[in-house]
């Protein structure tokens, strides 16, 4: 499974990196956050930054397969809870390969848009017990415990925010360690 994901991710990552919108070089004054070995520039959009993170190649491949690149390059603002490759690796064997097939685009889109909340929410905006309505339409819940932010999905699964407040030109990314699942 991991070889397939790596090959698929590498192919899509390369294609997205090649086709990403070209922007002026980021200013040296920009405050960047390192994610997946790459600087995330606040002047770039979610996709322009995500394609550079080696920890998010599976997410980028999934976004491409779901046809959500243009949406996440859009004006926003968006708050994205971005699962790492390791998070996708926690799913049952064969899940990612199945989801990226064209016939499963609807299910993949539902799962990915469940990780997106309209508006820009910094970690300090996320309060214990807060309900977040996702772009998919269902809710996520926020849990604060021992100084950490946890996101609870509709099935009771939890995902810890491992890197918060990765600002983008069209929102903010919070890196999470588990894929969130909608109720249906």
From TrEMBL:
It holds the Pfam family Fasciclin. One of its GO terms (cellular component) is extracellular space. It comes from the Bacteria. Residues 1-28 form the signal peptide. Keywords: Signal. Residues 43-180 form the FAS1 domain. PANTHER family: FI19380P1, PERIOSTIN-RELATED. This is Beta-Ig-H3/fasciclin. It comes from Bradyrhizobium icense.
């Amino acid at each position: 499974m991991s070889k397939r994901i790596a090959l698929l991710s590498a192919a899509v990552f390369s294609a997205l990196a090649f086709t990403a919108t070209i922007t002026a070089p980021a200013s040296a004054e920009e405050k960047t956050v390192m994610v997946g070995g790459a600087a995330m520039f606040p002047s770039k959009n979610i996709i322009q930054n995500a394609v550079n993170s080696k920890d998010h190649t599976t997410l980028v491949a999934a976004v491409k397969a779901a046809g959500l690149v243009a949406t996440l390059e859009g004006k926003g603002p968006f708050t994205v809870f971005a699962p790492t490759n390791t998070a996708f690796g926690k799913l049952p064997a064969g899940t990612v390969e199945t989801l990226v097939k064209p016939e499963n685009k609807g299910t993949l889109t539902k799962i990915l848009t469940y990780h997106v909340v309209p508006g820009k929410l910094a970690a300090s905006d996320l309060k214990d017990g807060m309900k977040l309505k996702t772009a998919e339409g269902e809710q996520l819940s926020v849990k604060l415990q021992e100084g950490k932010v946890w996101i609870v999905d509709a099935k009771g699964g939890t995902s810890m925010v491992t890197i918060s407040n990765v600002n983008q030109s069209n929102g903010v990314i919070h890196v999470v360690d588990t894929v969130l699942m909608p109720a249906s």
